[in-house]
């Protein structure tokens, strides 16, 4: 029986998206804090594609962005 609702790889991308957003929010506005999440998430998938060391997946990229969304919403509500 599968114990997880989503694959571990997708959960890791979600967590990294959250962390990237959280760290960038110390220096940037809420909307601009999404930019590093998008750039880093896309760069990681592009690196996987060209280096052939990983498996590039658009869903991984989307989970990275989805990790930032809850913190982004919290940031907007406290402003």
Integer average pLDDT: 93
Task: Report the biggest beta sheet as strand number plus sense, adding barrel if it closes.
Answer: none
Which structural class best describes the helix and strand composition?
A: mainly alpha
Shape: flat
Query: What is the tally of beta strands?
Result: 0
Total count of domains:
1
State the gist of this model.
With 79 residues, the protein is an all-alpha fold. The protein has helices spanning 8-24, 30-51, 58-78.
Structure description:
The protein is mostly helical. It has one domain (8-78). It has 3 helices and no strands. The chain has helices at residues 8-24, 30-51, 58-78. Helix 1 packs across helix 2 (30-51) and helix 1 packs parallel to helix 3. It starts with 7 loop residues before the first helix and ends with a helix.
What structural keywords apply?
single chain; 79 residues; mainly alpha; flat
Secondary structure blueprint with pairings:
Blueprint: H1 8-24, H2 30-51, H3 58-78
